[in-house]
Write the structure tokens for this entry.
Amino acid sequence: MGYSYSEYAKHSNITNPGEHKDNYSGLPTDIAGLTRIVQGLIIHYRSGDFLNYKIPESRIVDIDTRYVESMLEKIVKLNPSPLLNNRQLEHRLVGCCRDFSTLLCSLARSVGIPSRIRVGFANYFIPGFNVDHVIVEYWDSGWKLVDPEISDKHIDFYNIEFNPLDVPRNKFLVAGKAWQMCKDGADSNNFGVDPEMDIRGDWFVRHKLIQDLAAVNKKEILLWDCWGMMLKDEISAEEEELLNRVAELTQTGSIEELNSVFLENDNLRLPRVVKSFSPVAGAGDVKLKT
């Protein structure tokens, strides 16, 4: 089955830099160069201790920034110099893995590299546990995975033994693969935010699968945005079978098939209003831009 790769070189309404597109002038045209830029623009909201920097509490709200245009507005306000300039920690946008990846996806699309974010689980942070994570998949004679959050400091701290610019598929599991593994007997409680938290298990893997389906349909939502089947405590046998199909399609399907299964099912299609469970703002309805 073929892909319409060129579609992934076009912006979504989330990755579009909008009025800040001029800030993309002079960008490098390779993934390695673009990744270096992203790492100099964002700081993960849970990495302050890791980087020996206390993030001001008032800045944590940045993690609810959905759209790249708004991300760029905040970045430029903190430091108006060209994006190629590495920022001090206090001048970086506060975000999470989704933000590193969505911004890299935006930069890559702007220079014509087909790319998309992938939602799934990384097993290179906590031994024996699969942490929910978002990285980028880009086309280069085949789909390749890159983790734009992983700097040299991360490599040393987590003893990472692979190149973050070419993440092995057994190190980052797209959500569809994780779903299939759990159906085949893997313990779903080993898939979540943290082994010390209750945010894990079958329901959580289901959430990530639906979010990944949205992502490959160029709907790069926040990790705490929920809708449709994600809001159900239990799913039917018919719905489970549908998700089995989604799990397969998100790994092997064409963009036409991915678009079809996403748009033709009310419990999968992204609505205009989602329920957001923000770590900062709490639960509430959010109206998305069209």
